[in-house]
Amino acid sequence: MTGPPGQPTISRQPLNAFFRLFYVGTIVARLPVWLFVALFAAPSPKWSAKQTLLCRIAKAVTDLRSRIGITETLSLKPGREGNRFQVIQPLSQDLYKGPLSSSTSPEAVGATWFPEAPGKDISSKTVALYLHGGAFVINDGRDETSGFGCKLLTDSGVGIDAVLSLQYRLSGYGGRAPFPAAFQDCLTAYLYLIRTLEIPPRQIVLCGDSSGGNLAIALIRYIHEFGTSDIPLPKCAALFSPWVSPLDFDVSKSPRSNSDYLPSSFLQWGAVTYTTGVSNASSNPYIVPLGHAFATSVPIFVNTGTAEIFLDVVRKWAEEMQAVEGNQVEVHLEDSGVHDTLLAGALVGFEQSAKDAVAQMGAFVRRF
């Protein structure tokens, strides 16, 4: 059985099954060492043994999945989300300009509402448009993958009444949904909120983590450059561990590579498939925000963990943005936090750390 061009050979059966079995065996073999490290040599004195062990396991499982490199197939059926799941149709093609004008066309996209399906009074609510992380290749914004973070946004008293969690198209080998597919979906969802539901933009918080943070930055830039006359800007933006330099995916030499759970293989899988067919991707500001600061009237909250591999580049990007006159960019350092606890906090034992970060975000949002 052959797979899409560029997909790793081990993604094909029966090699796939043999490789999974072999890799799981290596995880089992490493468990005693990981247990010792968790109990006696945690990367941070503030980490529990549980957090240390879960981060090691998460990194190995993510590496396994990345080496196989099979992008999941998304469904536009409601599933267990029921009436909270929404299918959104793209609007007029002429709204997708500049970087969004491509051989890749806008398509219908799914999204999940939290905590419940919107009522007739939704236009009076403060709504977060949430763009999930996952290196552009995994996750779907639904309960299983994004429920923890989305519920934090609505249940933590941060001033957000509802969340629309977008199921944007995922990239994959063989030219599956590369840039700007996910980016187009973000604009589709934003236009749905302000045009179809008629939610005032001053009541919309744009929220994204990791690759979703990358997309949120791109959307703000796009509205400034191509849409200010007919697409108003949101109230503010909240970014958690935004992926601001996706083409620098080899993080093996990072001083925090032993503490964070992101392997280079995962970042490479996402970066390569997302930029397939894109010329000069490294200099495209809609793909690589780092080094491409811009002026914006949208206040931006940026959260990054002090134990995550993106710490240095996120801080550098934030400093670049802060240096632009008129920009309001606030950085919160999540003490001893790993990458994107809003998305993965419940998986790696950083629930409280994520709650603290969201509380800081709430204090920021309420000022505007």
UniProtKB/TrEMBL annotation:
Keywords: Hydrolase, Membrane, Transmembrane, Transmembrane helix. InterPro entries: AB_hydrolase_3 (IPR013094), AB_hydrolase_fold (IPR029058), GDXG_lipolytic_enzyme (IPR050300). One of its GO terms (molecular function) is hydrolase activity. Residues 129-341 form the Alpha/beta hydrolase fold-3 domain. Pfam families: Abhydrolase_3. The chain crosses the membrane at residues 21-42. SUPFAM superfamilies: alpha/beta-Hydrolases. This is Alpha/beta hydrolase fold-3 domain-containing protein.
